[in-house]
Design goal:
This protein is mainly beta. It has a single domain, classed as Single-stranded right-handed beta-helix, Pectin lyase-like (Pectate Lyase C-like), CATH 2.160.20. The protein is 11% helix and 34% strand. The protein is built from five helices and 30 strands. An eleven-stranded parallel β-sheet has the order 2-1-3-6-9-12-15-18-21-26-30. Strands 4-7-10-13-16-19-22-27 form an eight-stranded parallel β-sheet, with no helix packed on it. It has a seven-stranded parallel β-sheet with strand order 5-8-11-14-17-20-23. The longest helix is centred in the N-terminal third of the chain and has 13 residues. It is globular. The chain starts with a helix and ends in an 8-residue tail after the last helix. 42% of the residues are buried.
Length: 366
């Protein structure tokens, strides 16, 4: 009787018993091993048929995987062997990638990895869009071979995504590397590289303890012209948090000049309304940098404007940083000092409040 009582107490203290995580593996040679696949997507397709409600873990062996990948099952973990060893790469570009997307949109269609589910974790990988952006950037305006839609997304957090966490993962691209088009995306101890608007979208993104590297351009620029932009948020006015960068380092690769990069610019996506199709006036981007190191490539103004679609259909509407929800505090390094450009938004978000809002209902990521 005493033994039975003790066992019962142990079970109650331990909490409910859950079945073990279901594991799949990806490697070049499986040798007949169960739940082993030679492509990441094949493993994900198999795991999507698991309706147990348990977490699924997909272990990806060291190697280079040239494929487009979509994660559609909630509670899925993709686990590599380190960003320097496990790499998923594809070279789609928006100009020709519309057939990959449900609405034939090229930019999201170009994504190497698409996450379209709740509770997804990615750890220890490199995810790269390897489209040769610089070769196209080199071509002069008017060249018949130059394409205008040169966006190449590395990772897309799609419309059904929420509570997505990336850790020790590298996201490599040029224009539009990270597209936040869902709810919450957390990046910790990561690496993100790109040049034009390479972290953008209407979702909530929190980047902590990471490196954000600006990459060079190949086109010619007039003196004083911005060459690149780190963030391009299109945050809905109804949403308090947009893109937050905390305790991270803004660096540059060789060839990126001093004072040539803006922290961000406000993106107002072209949207269809009852009275026409034009830039969404309610997409008032929110971006925050807190306690970040900034190298000398960041210009003293820090923020700049962005063009949008006017009501007559031309790209003549101008959206100013002064009218956006941009804020920074604790910036340091050669690019940390900044001039007052007259931003009208007076809120001063602190990281404790941001964490409280961002992690509401997501206790596992705290």
């Amino acid at each position: 009787m005493k033994t039975s009582t003790a066992l019962t107490l142990l079970v109650l203290l331990a909490g409910p018993v859950h079945a073990a995580d279901v594991r799949y593996s990806v490697k070049a040679e499986c040798g007949g091993k169960a739940r082993c696949f030679t492509s990441v997507q094949a493993a994900l397709d198999a795991s999507a048929r698991d309706d147990s409600g348990n977490w699924v873990i997909v272990d990806i062996a060291p190697g280079h995987y040239h494929e487009k990948v979509t994660v559609s099952r909630p509670q899925t973990k993709l686990r590599g062997h380190g960003a320097g060893k496990t790499r998923i790469e594809y070279d789609a570009v928006a100009q020709t990638a519309g057939h990959y997307h449900r609405n034939a949109w090229g930019t999201p269609g170009s994504a190497t990895v698409t996450v379209d589910a709740d509770l997804v974790t990615i750890d220890g990988l490199t995810i790269e869009n390897s489209y040769d952006f610089l070769a196209n950037d080199t071509l002069p305006a008017g060249d018949a071979n130059k394409i205008s839609n040169s966006q190449g997304v590395a990772i897309l957090a799609d419309v059904h995504s929420d509570r997505v966490m990336l850790s020790h993962t590298a996201l490599i691209g040029n224009q539009d590397t990270l597209f936040a088009n869902g709810k919450r995306l957390l990046i910790r101890k990561g690496f993100i590289s790109g040049n034009v608007d390479f972290i953008f979208g209407n979702g909530q993104v929190l980047i902590e303890d990471s490196t954000i590297e600006s990459r060079r351009r190949a086109t010619a620029f007039a003196p004083g012209e911005f060459q690149s932009f780190v963030l391009a948020p299109s945050t809905p006015l109804s949403q308090e948090i947009g893109i937050v960068v905390y305790r991270s380092r803004l660096t540059r690769e060789a060839g990126v000049p001093d004072g040539s990069v803006a922290l961000g610019r406000p993106w107002h996506p072209t949207t269809t309304f009852a009275d026409g199709r034009y830039a969404d006036p309610n997409a008032v981007g929110q971006a925050t940098f807190i306690d970040c190191f900034m190298d000398a490539h960041i210009r003293n103004d820090h923020w700049t404007e962005m063009a949008g679609t006017a009501r007559d259909g031309t790209k003549t509407a101008r959206f100013l940083p002064q009218d956006s929800r941009f804020f920074e505090s604790g910036s340091s390094g050669p690019g940390g000092a900044h001039s007052d450009i007259g931003i009208k938004w007076t809120a001063k978000p602190d990281i404790r409040h941001i964490h409280a809002v961002f992690f509401d209902g997501w206790t596992s990521a705290k």
